[in-house]
Amino acid sequence: MRVTGTGHASMRIDTAAGSILCDPWVNPAYFASWFPFPDNSQLDWESLGQVDYLYVSHLHRDHFDAAHLRDFVAKSATVLLPEFPTSEMEDELRELGFTKFLRAPNEQVVELDGGLKIMIQALTSPTDGPIGDSSLWVEYDGVRLLNQNDARPTDLGVFAELGHVHAHFLQFSGAIWYPMVYELPAAAKTAFGKQKRERQFDRTWRYIDDLKASHVFPIAGPPCFLDDALWQFNDIHGDEGNIFPDQSVFLAEYAKVGGDNGVVLLPGSVAEITTTGCTTTHPVPVAEFFAGKVAHLEEMRERKRPIIEAEKASWRHPEIDVLKEMKRRIEPLLEESVYLAKGVGGPVRFDLVGYDGESVESIVVDFPEKQVRPYADEKVRYRFRTERALVEHLLYVDEVDWVNSLFLSCRFSAARIGQYNEFVYAFFKCLSRERMQYAEGWYDEHERNVDAEDITIGDWVVQRRCPHLKADLSRFGIVEGNQLTCQLHGWKFDLASGRCLTSVGHQIRAHRADAPVTAD
Prior knowledge:
Layout (H helix, E strand, L loop, with lengths): L1 E4 L5 E5 L2 E5 L12 E2 L8 H4 L4 E3 L10 H7 L5 E4 L6 H8 L4 E4 L6 E2 L5 E7 L9 E8 L2 E7 L7 H4 L6 E5 L14 H26 L3 E5 L3 E2 L22 H10 L13 E4 L4 E4 L4 H6 L1 H21 L8 H15 L2 H6 L2 E7 L6 E7 L4 E4 L7 E6 H9 L6 H7 L2 E5 L5 H7 L4 H16 L5 E4 L2 E4 L9 H4 E4 L2 E4 L4 E4 L4 E2 L9 E3 L8
Parallel strand pairs: 3-5, 5-6, 6-7, 11-12, 12-13, 17-20
Antiparallel strand pairs: 1-2, 1-15, 2-3, 4-14, 8-9, 9-10, 10-11, 15-16, 17-18, 18-19, 20-21, 22-23, 23-28, 24-25, 25-26, 26-27
């Protein structure tokens, strides 16, 4: 099996029975904020796109690059389609010209022509990607590969049961806006960023240890930030709280926990994987490339500047009445929302900075009252501050997912009262009737499906499944004193009270192991 690195989470897998192109991303994403690093735009995409199969793990725009898929990927390719709860991915791919689809039953091995086997695991909670994320397992002639990309399954056992995996591709770096955009003192922001960075690595080590593959390939990050306004997010400033470490940092941190089987793929690197080893060739020496990271980024910044400026020029739509359009789009969804609206539990404010960079229009999405209205000088749970032009553009293009656009762009600042509230971001990910209905149904089923099984961790008996997204706490749970941390997403719980310390709601069932059991 030959794997060609094509940047970020993208790779081309070649076997004698066929080729698979995964997650090709080249064009800037999220309001021209994210670019692939190392740069992959100068690869021979005319050739790389001539494949038998296309696999797109999910709709995040650093994985689903519509323009690139349209222009460079053969429309004769069969799309390996995850079993997602909505038809959005298939609909968008059909609009781009793809006509051949293999709808892979979830977690079932499918044998393709020539003995090539695949299995796709689809994750389907409202917080998994844009309504879904997935991983791809591939086997040919005894060689097995898992492309986990940035999916976060609760259990890799379904893959391990199919036989020893020889190549494990997974995320290790950040792909979020926290804590950089929060209006916090610098010291607090650094401390939170350091915790986030450590959690990212801890989760990666857990996945690696679970699968025990022959070779580990760090992928799906980090992006780079080439706009001058976002340049500080690149991990080149000696900031221990930066959440975007690169592949060279991964190798160094992995070595600290005894990892010696890491393999880095640059764009254009080729790994020949067999049941007994892995041989890799690179376009330039890996260590030499990352030693020159700053120079590479500076050269990219100048080369990509016209692209960024052209995108910025397209965002303004002064003809749009933002308040009127937000009311039209959002109020019907608020009326349909039960679980998400209750979960948010208060008003959320958007401060929109005008074209002059100073004037501000403040609009409130009032979840309890189910209305969008001008800000009335009240306390709010969350406050977002961003350019009016960005929201104008979201409304102009009828964007159904403000997470997969505005929030991931990091082109905003945020403040909140109290804990993180996942329902805020879940709601703004579901600005269509189809998504809202699915999310409400999922939370309804999730809330009614109480997990009765208990496990013992240290001195505590706790429910086996994390109240957040059902991670198996026998594998991901760590207890220190009276506090439990679920390492899958970093959520923390006070075991004495059962209270979630990370977000509102999500009570955990727990008691000390030596406590007397009382009958109900």
